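Narrative of accomplishments. A recurring question from our advisory board has been how the design workflow behaves on a single, concrete structure rather than in aggregate. To address it, we present the structure tokens for one chain from the evaluation set, followed by the sequence designed for it. No filtering or post-editing was applied between the two.
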């Protein structure tokens, strides 16, 4: 089972920085929310890393994964107790109601 997070509405970029990761640590999974708009397209054998319906990134110590915040993302059940990840969202405050 994958816990999915539909990104924040005000964030521009989200990320995950892997501090500690073992062989049973859960991957970061992505689902393309635009697939519903492609239902009439011929996609057989034409998917790329940018147009595929789903993708996963294996956790590696020191890896920083950046992605658009609107991209659906999450991880499955973790099997490594020491897995440590710093997750973050970049929000440009000048474009929000919290402007400084």
């Amino acid at each position: 089972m994958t816990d999915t997070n539909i990104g924040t509405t005000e964030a521009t970029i989200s990320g995950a920085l892997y501090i500690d990761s073992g062989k049973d640590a859960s991957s970061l999974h992505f689902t393309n929310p635009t697939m519903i708009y492609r239902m009439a397209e011929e996609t057989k054998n034409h998917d790329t890393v940018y147009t595929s319906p789903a993708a996963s990134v294996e956790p590696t110590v020191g890896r920083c994964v950046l992605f658009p915040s609107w991209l659906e993302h999450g991880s499955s059940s973790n099997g490594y107790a020491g897995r440590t990840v710093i997750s973050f969202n970049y929000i440009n405050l000048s474009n929000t109601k919290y402007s400084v």
